[in-house]
């Protein structure tokens, strides 16, 4: 009796083999999970350092003998160094290899962190922060590149969801962790804490991290000089604009002219040179350019709000530093929830709709924030923070997959550096915008509110008589009244900012539908069965 054989067995086997060959990472690696954990650990440390130092500045000022104005260079030097050196990440990755670049950047980051913790003067601290900023300029983009390179296409959505949690949650947690360290340890430990975390991760990276093929790519030195000048001038302008009253100061005017002129020269040069700093193919990709614009807005909303909300909680609502940090935690929980949920949804729903929904949810959270009042308890803060996290978590992962689905793997380092650069610029623009509008709106609101304060504003107190008979008590009452007027004016200014950012996110919601739907392995198409 002859044995029957299923007619489609050979076809199924061929299909499975084809699926196996397609679903392979660019770089094969042993213990992928352990390697990704080490890469993300280093990334968490460097993202923390972008915001963790903010709460320690008053303590650094005393310890380093700095003035109120000069201590801000601890932050400015770090931000400027990161912005200036981010554009050459792709070139360095090709020139020295992705493994060498990431390993030596990690070593530089850990050594400079230890040096920052041991600094005894402001010049030392600024110098070490510049070195630390340079190392983070390479670590951020290379983290994303490595996670893409070692993940098979079917795992990239999950990997990007995890990376998104790091990018979104770390800046939120920075002020809380910094406040905890400053209160219970010492400000120097905000830098020393990187060592016990980063050194074991470095050992794992040395063991497991693979490398892209080295390519003797020529550096576009002329282009790098001009983009560095533009970014440096722009960051300096954004950081010092409010202090110098913006365009009332010649310093800010010169910085703005330098930033615009240098950027124009860079763009004209990039169009004509044979070896541009960034591959021109990236700028001809509509999906990648759209993702850059959405990343800018995401940086504006996430980084800027992370920077100003703890200050609001402390100055307007009088929460302690630790409580202010805890009030940011629901936002991180929201990001974690939707980052994981988005991986499931992207297999069933157009990812453009997911991004649009994320913007709508983020806009709704800001609408909730416009309803805040001075008399409310913390439940509305917690709710708005959690809802905002839900929205932000739905944007980052699909947006990154959208950006990288249509570019060649060899362009990932350049693409990652551009994404990181635009995200950081969005955060810088957002912080400058919010701080400036807060200062100006608070002055206007203070004048409007104070104009309506009359001698009868305090029931049961004859203020003119009290000032005449008891000047000390009357002066105290006037001080208390002015303090409450300032508090209410600050609240109005914050609400105005929330309303403006609500419209920014709402107007971004339809934008994803203008993009071409791209095929993403493992998501928009079903992978062949194994």
Give the CATH superfamily of the largest domain: MFS general substrate transporter like domains
* Helix/strand order: HHHHHHHHHHHHHHHHHHHHH
Our count of domains comes out at: 3
Radius of gyration over alpha carbons? 26 Å
Major beta-sheet overview: none
Assign the CATH class of the largest domain. Answer: Mainly Alpha
The number of distinct helices, counting runs of at least 4 residues, comes to 21
Strand runs, count: 0
The global form is globular
Short summary:
The chain has 530 residues and is an all-alpha fold. The protein has helices at 9-22, 32-48, 57-64, 73-85, 89-96, 98-118, 122-149, 156-184, 189-192, 194-208, 221-240, 250-272, 280-283, 286-315, 321-326, 329-345, 351-369, 379-404, 412-450, 463-469, 471-508. The chain is 73% helix and 0% strand.
Question: What labels describe this entry?
Answer:
about 525 residues, disordered C terminus, Growth Hormone, Chain: A, mainly alpha, 3 domains, disordered N terminus, globular
Description:
The chain is built from 21 helices and no strands. The protein is mainly α and 530 residues long. It folds into three domains: 27-214, MFS general substrate transporter like domains (Growth Hormone, Chain: A, Up-down Bundle); 220-276; 281-451 and 462-524, MFS general substrate transporter like domains (Growth Hormone, Chain: A, Up-down Bundle), CATH 1.20.1250.20.
Question: Which SSEs are present, and which pair or pack?
Answer:
Blueprint: H1 9-22, H2 32-48, H3 57-64, H4 73-85, H5 89-96, H6 98-118, H7 122-149, H8 156-184, H9 189-192, H10 194-208, H11 221-240, H12 250-272, H13 280-283, H14 286-315, H15 321-326, H16 329-345, H17 351-369, H18 379-404, H19 412-450, H20 463-469, H21 471-508
């Amino acid at each position: 009796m002859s044995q029957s054989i299923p007619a489609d067995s050979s076809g199924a086997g061929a299909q499975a083999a084809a699926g196996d060959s397609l679903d392979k990472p660019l770089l094969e690696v042993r213990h992928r999970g352990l390697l990704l954990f080490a890469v993300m650990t280093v990334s968490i440390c460097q993202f923390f350092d972008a915001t963790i130092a903010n709460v320690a500045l008053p303590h650094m000022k005393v310890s380093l003998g700095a003035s109120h104005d000069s201590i801000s260079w601890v932050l400015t030097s770090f931000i400027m160094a990161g912005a200036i050196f981010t554009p050459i990440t792709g070139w360095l990755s090709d020139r020295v290899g992705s493994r060498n670049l990431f390993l030596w950047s990690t070593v530089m980051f850990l050594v400079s962190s230890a040096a920052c913790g041991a600094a005894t003067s402001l010049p030392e601290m600024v110098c070490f922060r510049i070195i630390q900023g340079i190392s983070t300029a390479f670590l951020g983009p290379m983290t994303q590149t490595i996670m893409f390179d070692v993940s098979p296409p079917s795992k990239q959505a999950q990997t990007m969801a995890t990376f998104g949690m790091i990018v979104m949650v770390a800046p939120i947690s920075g002020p809380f962790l910094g406040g905890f360290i400053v209160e219970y340890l010492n400000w120097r430990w905000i830098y020393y804490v990187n060592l016990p975390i980063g050194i074991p991760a470095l050992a794992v990276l040395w063991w497991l991290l693979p490398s892209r093929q080295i390519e003797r790519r020529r550096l576009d030195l002329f282009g790098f000089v001009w983009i560095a000048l533009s970014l440096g001038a722009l960051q300096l302008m954004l950081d010092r604009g409010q202090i110098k009253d913006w365009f009332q100061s010649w310093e800010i005017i010169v910085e703005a002219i330098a930033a615009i002129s240098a950027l124009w020269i860079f763009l004209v040069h990039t169009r004509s040179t044979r070896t541009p700093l960034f591959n021109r193919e990236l700028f001809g990709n509509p999906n990648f350019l759209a993702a850059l614009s959405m990343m800018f807005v995401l940086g504006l909303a996430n980084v800027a709000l992370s920077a100003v909300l703890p200050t609001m909680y402390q100055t307007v609502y009088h929460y302690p530093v630790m409580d202010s940090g805890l009030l940011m935690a629901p936002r991180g929980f929201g990001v974690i929830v939707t980052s994981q949920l988005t991986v499931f949804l992207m297999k069933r729903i157009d990812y453009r709709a997911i991004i649009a929904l994320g913007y709508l949810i983020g806009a709704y959270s800001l609408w909730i924030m416009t309803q805040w009042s001075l008399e409310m308890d913390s439940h509305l803060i917690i709710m708005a923070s959690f809802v905002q996290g839900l929205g932000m978590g739905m944007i980052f992962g699909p947006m990154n997959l959208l950006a990288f689905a249509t570019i060649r793997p060899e362009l990932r380092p350049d693409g990652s550096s551009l994404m990181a650069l635009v995200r950081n610029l969005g955060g810088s623009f957002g912080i400058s915008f919010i701080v400036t509008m807060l200062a100006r709106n608070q002055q206007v609101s203070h004048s409007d509110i104070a104009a309506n304060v009359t001698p009868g504003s305090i029931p049961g107190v004859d203020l003119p008589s009290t000032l005449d008979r008891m000047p000390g008590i009357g002066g105290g009452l006037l001080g208390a009244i002015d303090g409450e007027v300032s508090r209410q004016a600050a609240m109005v200014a914050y609400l105005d900012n929330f309303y403006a950012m609500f419209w920014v996110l709402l107007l971004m919601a339809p934008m994803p539908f203008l993009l071409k739907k791209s095929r993403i392995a493992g998501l928009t198409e079903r992978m062949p069965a194994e």
